[in-house]
Write a structure and sequence with these properties.
DNA binding; RecA_ATP-bd; about 325 residues; 12 helices; alpha/beta; nine-stranded mixed β-sheet; ATP binding; Rossmann fold; two-stranded antiparallel sheet; ATP-dependent DNA damage sensor activity
């Protein structure tokens, strides 16, 4: 290795001043409902568990929009974080048009609130289908979408290679002043059965490890930890349940009995989630926050339209309240 190559190999990615400003500038932030109960900060790993479908991806989309939106733009308050979102699609079913529609709705809603008098004046003169053309800010929309980095993986090895190269993929955006806010994974257990099937297959019997499910997940967790050491970000991952209890733990029980209110019972309940855990212990130890979601019957909207309702319960940290919400064209709406 020549002198020039050696200097290039040891050259730092950022100065000490840049590192301190990045680390010390991180603060806890709140996302929109239904993820508003607990403030999240860099280093947190949130696992959203539920059967399919329970609007887990919709929650990711709404949280992503909050991250990529700016706080203010041309005098209009949008309440965003103006950060990059890394979205790893392992289910390969992500609907980018849904993201686009929800983002446009947030832009129009914020513009309507910030320009109420103008909107009321135009509302009587402009057709609904033409209104978006008048108030739609194409430049703001494009800048938000540029902060959403979408990557699709088809197996665990491709996921590993993606995690190893993420730092280099986001370097151009960070050079322009945009910092990473959230790493989203939909869903972390997508390759569970294929990895489990190949656990008995050895790559090579000569001084090589076998390709086991535990080894793969441990390596994935290690790569995420390396990424979180370099970038101050929050990890939000969805996970589909395999076996789930039929009866909800809190929602259908109504009032809790005095025995259930005891601290010992509360801790034992937190240790026994209402679903069977299938991820290896390395992933379970990596998770800091746990959310459980399930269907919650139907909800009659104001237009007498029946929509599916869902409930969200915080298991870690354990909260007594359960949020009930629906999903409409605008996104997630809390109904109770």
């Amino acid at each position: 290795m020549g002198e020039h190559e050696a200097r290039g190999w040891i050259r730092c990615d950022e100065t000490a001043k840049q590192m301190l400003s990045r680390v010390l500038g991180d603060r806890a932030f709140l996302l929109l409902p239904p993820l508003h109960r607990v403030p999240l900060r860099a280093g947190n790993v949130v696992e959203i568990t539920g059967s399919s479908p329970t609007a887990k991806t919709q929650i990711l989309i709404q949280a992503a929009i909050t991250c990529i939106l700016p706080k203010t733009w041309n005098g209009v308050h949008y309440g965003g974080l103006e950060k990059l979102v890394l979205f790893l699609d392992l289910d390969c079913r992500f609907d980018v048009l849904r993201l686009s529609d929800m983002l446009k709705h947030r832009l129009l809603e914020a513009y309507r609130i910030g320009n109420g008098a103008w909107w009321q004046l135009e509302e009587s003169n402009v057709k609904t289908q033409d209104k978006s053309k008048i108030v739609y800010d194409e430049e703001l929309y494009v800048s938000c979408m540029k902060r959403f980095l979408y990557l699709r993986c088809y197996d665990s090895l491709e996921l590993l290679s993606t995690l190893k190269t993420l730092h280099y993929r986001i370097r151009p955006q960070e050079a322009c002043g945009s910092q990473v806010g959230v790493l989203m994974i939909d869903s972390i257990g997508a390759f569970h059965w294929t990895d489990r099937l190949s656990s008995s297959l050895a790559l090579d019997k000569n001084n090589r490890k076998s390709l086991s499910l535990t080894n793969v997940v441990e390596t994935i967790v290690q790569e995420m930890k390396k990424l979180m050491q370099v970038h101050s970000l929050v990890v939000i991952a969805t996970k589909a349940t395999i076996y789930e209890e039929k009866c909800p733990t809190n929602e259908n029980n109504g009032k809790l009995s005095s025995n259930n209110a005891m601290p010992g019972n509360a801790s034992s309940k937190a240790q026994q989630p209402p679903f069977r855990e299938f991820m290896p212990s390395s992933w379970q130890a990596f998770v800091t926050h746990k959310i459980f979601m399930r269907k919650s019957g139907d909800y009659q909207s104001s237009g007498q339209q029946s929509l599916s309702a869902y409930s969200l319960e915080w298991l870690q940290p354990q909260l007594s309240s359960i949020d009930r919400f629906i999903v409409d064209d605008s996104g997630i709406v809390i109904v109770s």
